[in-house]
Amino acid sequence: MLKQYDHREKAIIIATFLLYCSFVILDNTSYGASFMLGLAIFVIGISNLHFKFTPYLLFTLQFCLYCYATTFWALNGRMTITMGNTILQTIIVMSVFYTAFSPMKDNINTLIKIIMFAGYTVVVYTYFFYGFGSILSLSSDSSRIGNTYNNVNVIGMLAALTVIIHFYLHLFEKKRKDIFFVIPAIIIVGATESRKAIFMVVVGVFLLFFFKARLGPRHNMLPIIKFLAAGVVIAILVESLAHTGLFSGASERVQGLIASITGEGEVDSSTSLREYYRQVGWDQFLKTPVAGIGINNSSVLLSMVGSDHITYLHCNYAELAACGGLLGLISYYSIHVYLMVNELKYIKIDKSAIFFVIWLFLMLTTDWGAVSYYTKRNYFSLMVFFLHVQQMRQRHPHIR
User: Fold this and answer.
1) How far apart (Å, rounded) are the C-alpha atoms in residues 67 and 326?
2) Interatomic CA distance for residues 45 and 397, integer angstroms
3) How far apart are CA 14 and CA 47, in angstroms?
4) Which of the four, 147, 156, 167, 217, has the lowest number of CB atoms within 10 Å?
5) b/e per residue, 385-398, with b = 16+ CB within 10 A?
6) Is 190 a residue whose pLDDT tops 90?
7) Stated pTM of the model
8) Cα–Cα separations (whole angstroms), residue 101 to 21, 75, 118
9) Which residues have CB under 8 Å from 359's CB, separation 6+?
10) What gap in Å lies between CA 325 and CA 83, rounded to an integer?
11) Which candidate, 161, 135, 145, 136, places its Cα nearest to that of 23?
């Protein structure tokens, strides 16, 4: 991956790898933000960067400015300013890396691999942190790892994205002999019992096989047969793991989620609590539909309704609807609409666009169970998306 780059570019790539690892490993430490800023200063110092007002900066900055604007009517303006400062700092750092990667050759493929290798680094770190034996025992006795060095859902979702990227490279780039490395990552997904992570792995891999089958010749049934065979194998594996005891806790949590959707079966307490949070958010949205109660004020809202837990609403849509109103939803998700519209232009002619459409779809669907509008990983991912759109326009100038 590094052979084609000079020493300066290699240093930037290594700094980016460390940056992405820090989003999970150092996120809950007092020096995580300082480490991020230090890496950005390092990249500026070794590069001759020419900053431009890019679409990435335009879309993310307009949302950040709206966050600041809600301070004027927020229930707690200080909390809103704090969140605005966090987002602005993240945007500035990501813009440095955007500018550094923009002129690089094969920058998108390199960034995807950085995320994958960083994901595996986090997986290995998780095994060392909790102990390999503990991870396996947790996966088999309906227990999950604790929120110690980071939230278990964050760890699980990064492991899931790592698996999806590895399958994409295996199916669409070239057959990789190291595909068995996904097994430790899948075990981490099971140990976290994150339903969002499980959804990402199952749906993400399924969609990759589906689009791979569609790329085959129209009158050749072999790709379709391979796709159907892969679907059967995935279904058998999922069913088998659910009955072996391994991932039993994850299986129970998924069953609780399905019960809440179908109305049949027992709904677990975690699912019920998340439904309550979402309902509080939507109820507030009906009261303040235009501009909300101020970004980052969901904890204030929950305290006002007498909730036992003062936290965020565990749903990005409900969180933004309650705190930012319709304007907040439009401001934030206009970014994703712009990206999806542009990615869909190239999905039939460029295989990399297939991966980005799947990735964006997974981001939008998992937002139903997570608050992501302020996370560093989210703005890094958006940076990669905007760079990919830039690459597609350069590679296919006839499509507008």
Assistant:
1) 13
2) 33
3) 14
4) 217
5) bbbbbbbbeeeeee
6) no
7) 0.90
8) 18, 40, 17
9) 161, 164, 204, 381, 385
10) 16
11) 161
Cβ neighbours around 56 below 10 Å, total: 25
Provide the 8-state DSSP code for 268.
Answer: P
130's tokens? 């909790």
For the chain, the maximum distance between any two Cα atoms, rounded to a whole number of angstroms, is: 62
To which residue do tokens 């609780």 refer? 256
Q: Running DSSP on this structure, what letter comes out for residue 1?
A: -
Determine how many CB atoms are found less than 10 A away from the CB of residue 79: 19
Amino acid at 50: H
Virtual torsion, Cα 315, 320, 321, 326, nearest 10 deg: -140
In three-state secondary structure terms, 381 is helix
Q: Contact, 120 vs 166, CB < 8 A? A: no
| Residue carrying the six token digits 């990435």 | 56
